[in-house]
Amino acid sequence: MKVTRHLKSGWTLEQEPLYKTHTVGLYIVVSVPSKGLTLIWDKNTRITIELNPDWRNKVCGLCGNFDSNEMNDLQIIGSAVVSSPLAFGNSWKISTPPCSDVTTEIFPCERHSYCSAWAQRRCMIIKGDTFRDCHLTVDPEPYYQACVQESCSCEFEGKFLGFCTAVAAYAEACGDLDVCMNWRTPDLCPVYCDYYNEQGQCRWHYESCGRILTCGTPNHSNQKLEGEKQLYMYTV
């Protein structure tokens, strides 16, 4: 889908694209060409922001300053760098509506203790045989820890959703380094491809390491998406 606006320049009516949206595999991609900005949403709990290289060293905030230096990502308003995530987050609060500073960090598994054992057990898939071929390429430990916290952060009904998002992040990191992981099953974070099928048009299929054909919609993202090679379609 392309959204445009009409601009009147003298007596000439011009069209300027505001943003475009399209689906790539499991993701919805929203691109804003005039701003050099792309948003990638997995339709669940994860969103990725891609910026044109022209934005390098020209942004700041909760997402960092886009200078390829992870050591200064916790930069607060005023250019100082702190070590506390709480101080970092508090510094970027908006003034309206006013809200008090967060003074105590409560981890999700402490808030939802009933999820902790479940999360640790399920997230072991990242450190287990399923992802064994990727362990020497991408360190699984930080992804395992993130998976546990992400799984605990959801309410009871939604914890499975947080788990799937976290495991997909590790699969995507492996795919970025050309290590393809076939980890989804009908019982584990399944992809219901049949939902997308329309009789006589395009037919969707799931394949962990297949190629993607998007029926005329090119993928302009520079990032390899975990689901990009897993959900593809061909014309019948």
UniProtKB/TrEMBL annotation:
VWFD domain residues: 1-100
Keyword entries, A-Z: Secreted
Taxon lineage: Eukaryota, Metazoa, Chordata, Craniata, Vertebrata
Domain of life: Eukaryota
Cellular compartments annotated: Secreted
GO CC, alphabetical: extracellular region
Entry protein name: VWFD domain-containing protein
Secreted as UniProt keyword: yes
Source organism of the structure: Cyprinodon variegatus
The keyword Secreted is assigned to this record: yes
PROSITE patterns: VWFD
